[in-house]
Amino acid sequence: MAKNALAKKPARRSDFLTAIPFMLPALIGLSIFVLIPGIRGVYLAFTSYDVFTDPVFIGFDNFVKMFQDPLFWNALAVTSEYVVLNIGIQTVVSLFIAVLLHRFTRSTLVRGIVLMPYLISNVIVALVWYWLLDYNLGLVNSVIDFLGLPKFTFFDDVTAMPTIALINVWRHMGYTSLLIFAGLQAIPEDVYAAAAVDGAGEWRTFRSITLPLLRPVMAFVLVITITGSFQIFDTVAVTTNGGPVNATRVFSLWIASKAWGDFNFGYASAISVFLMVLLSLVAFAQTKLLKAGESDLER
Description:
about 300 residues; mainly alpha; 13 helices
C-alpha cells in the first residue's frame, strides 16, 4: 500500500508540469488584462490622478466624496432598478422557456433559434430596438398609430429604464434558458415517475421537485446574471446615454464619464472599487443563501 502511494506522487507532479504550458496563455492573459490593471485601479482609487500629472496619494478622500455625491446615490438607485427589472423578468421567462424545451422538444434547431438573440452584438441589438421604438419613425409606434391608439414614449424619464431592461431580457433570455435547460436534463426521470405514481400534479411536481433540484443551477444563473446586470453599459450608452436627466445613468456609464469626460481617473477608480466590492458581497451572499454547493439529489 505504501509503495503504491509513493508511486502515485510523481505521476501527479508530472501531470501538473504537463498542464503548465496549457495554462500559461490563460494565465498571461489574465495577468495582463485583469490582475495588473485591477491592482493599479485599486491603487488609483486612493489617489488624485488626471493622466496628465503623476498620481497624488489622498487616502480615502475619493470614497468620502463618492458617498457625499448625489450622483452616486442616483447611480445606485438607477442600477438597482435595472437589476431588479432585468433579473426578475429574465429569470421567470427563461425558466418558462427552459421547461417548455425540456417537456415538449429536444430539437437542436429550436435551441439555436432560442439562442440566436444572444449571438447578436449588444450594440446592434440596442440600435435596432432604439430605431423600432422611436417615437416619430419607429415601427412599433407606427403600428400603434395605425391602430388608432396614442403613441408611446419608450425613452422618457419614467419608461426608459424599464424599456432598456426589456431589451436586454429579449437578448439574454435564450442563453439563460439553455443554462436552466441543462440543469433540467440532469434531473433523473425516475424522480418524476415516482411523483406521478404518488399522484402529484404538474404544478406540485414543478414546485416540490423541479425547483429544489434546480437550486445549484439557479444559484449559478443568478450570480452571473446579477453580476452582469450591475455592469450594464452598452445598451444605455447607445439608447439614452444616461438621460433624460440622469434617469438611466448607471454605474458603468457614470464611471466612464468621470474617467474619460472629466479625466478624474482617481475618482472613477474609487467608484469601480466600490462596485467590485459590492458585486463580490452580492455574489458571496447569493452563494451562501442559495446553498449553491449543495444538491437535493445527494440527500
